[in-house]
Amino acid sequence: MNAVKQQIITDVRKKKEYLNLDDNFILKHLEEYFRLHPKTAEYLKDLPKERLTKNAKYKNTIKHIRAISRKIYGIFQKDVGKRNELLEKDDIKSLLLTHLSTKERIEVYPELYKKILKYTPLDSILDLACGLNPISIVYMPKLPSEYEAVDLSADDAKFLNRFFENKKIKGKSHAINLAVDFKKVQKLKSCHTAFLFKALDSLEAQNRNMTYEFLPLIPADVLIVSFTTVNVKQQPLTRPRRSWFEKVCNRIDFSFETFELGNEIFYVCKKV
Fold first, then answer.
1. Neighbouring C-alpha atoms within 13 Å toward the C-beta of 196
2. What CATH number is given to the structural domain containing 213?
3. Which tens digits make up the pLDDT trace of 200-212?
């Protein structure tokens, strides 16, 4: 079965948007799929490779894993293969355009960081479910003294570490599947400010009610959480505020203020 799993990982990644997807992320969802479809798992484990990749059950497995990956990770990725070249050219804007969230935020970054500075220093930062957001630090009035980044993909973490090195920033990046291993954040270094941009809706979809436990574990004085204010068709949401998130904050004794910028609503959260 190990050979089958490795082949599935390889084939899932053959599409560009899944190129940097972490092995453990794929395996987690693959094992869940096999748990729900034990006959498929049993059938595939004995197939030779030349028959395996042509098999309908195998193709359906790949399709399922990609569908999940697209919802959580792949939908945000574009031109992943060009990132190393863009980093070497120091083409920051083009780099940010290769990820949907940073692409949508690119015109408002300078104003965003000015607004955040009204609430908390941008000195030591923890960026959770970060995507390519750490690259946007070039838009800050002053570069932070420390920056720690956490995201799903090990390859993306390595890429961000090269970015920090190139910019001579005291930064580091790790790969952590926050939907499953969110308790690991309590072992990260304490900081002034933590970012959690446009991630909680997705994390909650994977691990319902995790936010109650997750937020208090984040080792930061101030937490900046954002949510999208538009739907998949880029139309404004009727109710952009997240009442469920506000209830969580109230229950765990977090104060919060909000502001809107671009197509996001930002919550500035502090432990009471």
1. 25
2. 3.40.50.150
3. 988 887 788 999 9
